[in-house]
Amino acid sequence: MPEGDVTRRVGPELDLNRPSDARIYDLMLGGKNNFEVDRQVFAELLKVGPEIPQLATENRRWIAAAIGRMSAAGVSQFLDLGCGLPAERNLHDEVLAVDPSAKTVYVDNDVTAIAHGQALLADYRRTFFAAADILDPAMVLEHPTVVDALDRDRPVGLIFGLTLHTLSGTDQLRQLLADYLAPFPSGSFVAITHPMNPNDGSRLADAATAIEDKFREHFPRLRFRTHEELTEALADLEILAPGILDLARWCPAGEPALSPTGAARLILTALARKP
């Protein structure tokens, strides 16, 4: 897709009066690529979830661990769907650390992410950026950058790091994963982190609802999921051990427990394989 078509096919012009989830996530990681409207939303979120920045960092650590597992299983090409803004250590850094020959394709439709992503990757030969909407698998998979970079005869590692909560239906999520995996062979993987609300009347559910409601003020399509809903969405895949876990339970043995208030339980993690 020519660069001139980015805003026409991918997203709106930059609007400094509307917050961006990509820029807010950048704020959580200590980044500087944000505006006053993003900082205002971030300040509101900290009031209901002061541990959110720690969880964003831990989310990236889980993704790095998942990359290592996928690489060990023979995956050497990765598609990061909803990559957001560049951080201090990016996903392609994790990929190249375990396999210097591997390829990474970033995908995002946020205007700021597009600008920074393309600039960051100008000097990389095994890392690419495609401006596209991740909720449109056909648009992503037909993007010239994706077509050129990925070999559809070899397994791929799909990465959805806190990016699927804008897809409302569980059946829609299941179909989206199937559409992304359809062109690739058995042995392909999906790595997912997803915000969770147990919806069981517990104090944890109350905390999740408070965060969800605060986000939804600015992002109306937001949708946290239960453990059961994410399990159902992954029903066509082989969920690898230790199964679908929250970040608190995933934390490696011997390390301090995350977020003593229980906020780490609000992010589910799953690594699944295409049979």
Automatic annotation (TrEMBL):
Domain of life: Bacteria
The organism of origin for this protein: Kribbella albertanoniae
Lineage: Bacteria, Bacillati, Actinomycetota, Actinomycetes, Propionibacteriales
Annotated signal peptide: none
Coiled coil: none
Protein name in the entry: SAM-dependent methyltransferase
UniProt-listed SUPFAM superfamilies: S-adenosyl-L-methionine-dependent methyltransferases
InterPro entries for this protein: SAM-dependent_MTases_sf, SAM_dep_MeTrfase_SAV2177_type
Classification via Gene3D superfamilies: Vaccinia Virus protein VP39 (3.40.50.150)
